[in-house]
Amino acid sequence: MYKTTFTWAINYNIMSKLFYLPAALLFLLSSCKKKQEKIQPTIENITESVYASGIVKSNQQYQVFSKASGIIKQILVTEGDEVKKGDTLIIILNETATLNTENAQLTADFAANNAAGDKLTELKINIDQAKNKLDNDASLVERQRNLYNQNIGTRNELEQRELSLKNSTTAYNAAKLRYNDLKKQLEFNLQQSKKNVAISSSISKDFIIRSEMDGKVYSVLKEQGEMVNTQSPVAIIGDANDFKLELQVDEYDIAKIKPGQKVLLSMDSYKGQVFEATVSKINPLMNERSRSFTIDAVFVNKPPALYPNLTTEANIVLLTKEKVLTIPRAYLIDDNFVLMEKDKKVKVTTGLKDYQKVEILGGINAGDFIFKPTK
Fold first, then answer.
1. In sequence order, what are the beta bridge partners of 46?
2. Can you say how many angstroms the Cα of residue 99 is from the centroid of all Cα atoms in its chain?
3. 130-142: string of b/e by CB count within 10 Å (b at 16+)?
4. Over the stretch 45-60, which tens digit does the pLDDT of each residue have?
5. What is the Cα 74 distance to its own chain's centre?
6. SS3 category, 354
7. Rounded distance between C-alpha atoms, residue 69 and residue 122, angstroms
8. Smallest Cα–Cα separation from 263: which of 123, 82, 23, 54?
9. Residue 65: which residues within 8 A CB-CB, separation 6 or more?
10. Which of 57, 116, 196, 271 has its CA 20 to 30 A from that of 295?
């Protein structure tokens, strides 16, 4: 009997607690509702801006590529070195190119010797001999013609002298032609050999990688003994002191961006600080993968130390208004309504928006209370 009474008492207590649980929940919800956040609109400045993310780049920063493939023989610079335009950065093993240049030079020297050598001298002597024979035969023809006119000698003798003169003329012209042809051929060979030397020298220069500008070596991407080609960069060089911003803007916002607009930016390297820049260039080609445009900006005031590829987050300022009526964006319902007392929705006219506030042009006044919508 005692056990039954005890069990009934426990069940009664449990049922009592379950009975009062909904009432407790209702009280709790009612208390939360009474504590619903409310504010009044405030008069302050508001700025409309476009978000952009990007990196810091050295001005004129570029990737250094090799013009020839081969194995790195020597690296003459390290990260942080300042270089001048034309300074040697990397030397690539080029034994074959060196041998080709030497061979081309030998060919050019041989061609030069031929151009002023024995073959032309020999043909020049042949020309002189042919000219002497021509002059002699011409003299004999003249003499034989005079004798024939004086009825001395025969017509056949005169014709033989004239035939000898004709043959001598042909031989003389042929000797000059051979001389000129050989001279042209030797000059052509000489010029061709010189061109081959120039080409070989140019190819040899391709095995020496030089800086294209005055600046700083920010990265060396290869090591001695590694293979390089014309497709992969070997180093990164940029201006040592001048930096710019390369920002990515979504395609939906690009129409709002204009050169000269103010840019406010922050960087992880300088937490809590805000720096100012100005839009300098809008690159017109959209990146199809990210659906964004690249915007260049220059610093108005910059941090004391900058390095390429530092990340940044920025707001490109479109328009600023002073002393306007604003409310937090979290209090806006469906972009056009706010919540008043007794859950009454009131339509408002909005203006500028930033990431926290929205301008109110009409619908409520500065003295009105509005409530934060519950989710």
1. 321
2. 35
3. beebbeebbebbe
4. 888 888 999 999 988 8
5. 26
6. coil
7. 48
8. 54
9. 230, 231, 232, 233, 234
10. 271
Compute the distance between CA of residue 322 and CA of residue 46 in angstroms, rounded to an integer: 7
User: Which residues, listed in sequence order, are joined to residue 350 by a DSSP beta bridge?
Assistant: 360
pTM of the model: 0.54
Token readout for 126 is 């042949």
pLDDT at 30: 47
The first and second tokens of residue 375, run together, are 């989710």
Provide DSSP, 6-66.
HHHHHHHHHHHHHHHHHHHHHHHHHHHHHT--EE--EEEEEEEEEEEEEEEEETT-EEEE-
Separation CA 7–CA 181 (nearest Å): 133
Residue 196's identity, in one-letter code, is N
- Asked if 127 and 172 touch (Cβ cutoff 8 Å), the reply is yes
Residue 200 binned pLDDT confidence (cut-offs 50, 70, 90): low
Beta carbons within 8 Å of 182's beta carbon, 6+ residues apart:
119, 120, 123
3-state secondary structure of 317: strand
Tokens of 100: 């080709």
Place of tokens 């990515």: 248
Q: What's the rounded Cα separation, in Å, for the pair 41 and 37? A: 13
DSSP 107-133: HHHHHHHHHTSHHHHHHHHHHHHHHHH
Q: What are the φ/ψ torsions at residue 169 (nearest 5 degrees)? A: -65, -45
In the 8-state DSSP scheme, what is residue 342?
A: G
Structural contact between residues 79 and 219, judged by C-beta atoms closer than 8 angstroms: yes
The CA-atom distances, in angstroms, between 314 and each of 21, 256, 342 are 52, 15, 41
CA distance 81 to 219: 10
In DSSP notation, 210-263 reads E-SSSEEEEEE---TT-EE-SSSEEEEEE-SS-EEEEEEEETTTGGG--TT-EE
Secondary element (H or E) of residue 205: helix 155-205
